């Protein structure tokens, strides 16, 4: 860390053990992501629950290049947070997940989900259990009767709108997980 971390306790006394636990967790984050510029951790005891033990609220605020990552673990409905160490552990686990996502984003390693391919049935050969789909760019994609999901191959008609997952087959492109598009489905 470029700047020494700030650790603050509110509504409770600071203990060497709690500070050491927080310091250890901060060091682990720093080893995982050495570009952390600063860190602020606040542990607060909420005294609102007289019929139960104190609940602890933990906030971890990390400054990294170009962004600030904030984790705030509110103990409202989480009785495990009657233990300050558990509340701290949970907050740092969430901070680690945010750092992992941020690191992935920096590397350009972000998951993207492409929409399923779509097209129209242009040929059906019931005797051979297959058909062909024409994609918007004019390619023909083979599909087998068994690739059809939630529809009856014998009820399928030429011109039906289809969405599918495309994969390379022995004879060229083939469709798997073929779904008939309902009249209310919007294909993007």
UniProtKB/TrEMBL annotation:
Protein name stated in the entry: HPF/RaiA family ribosome-associated protein
Superkingdom of origin: Bacteria
Family matches, as Pfam families: CSD (PF00313), Ribosomal_S30AE (PF02482)
Span of domain CSD: 126-180
Region (Disordered): 167-188
A GO term for molecular function: nucleic acid binding
InterPro entries in alphabetical order: CSP_DNA-bd, NA-bd_OB-fold, RHF-like, RHF/RaiA
Family matches, as Gene3D superfamilies: Nucleic acid-binding proteins (2.40.50.140), Ribosome hibernation promotion factor-like (3.30.160.100)
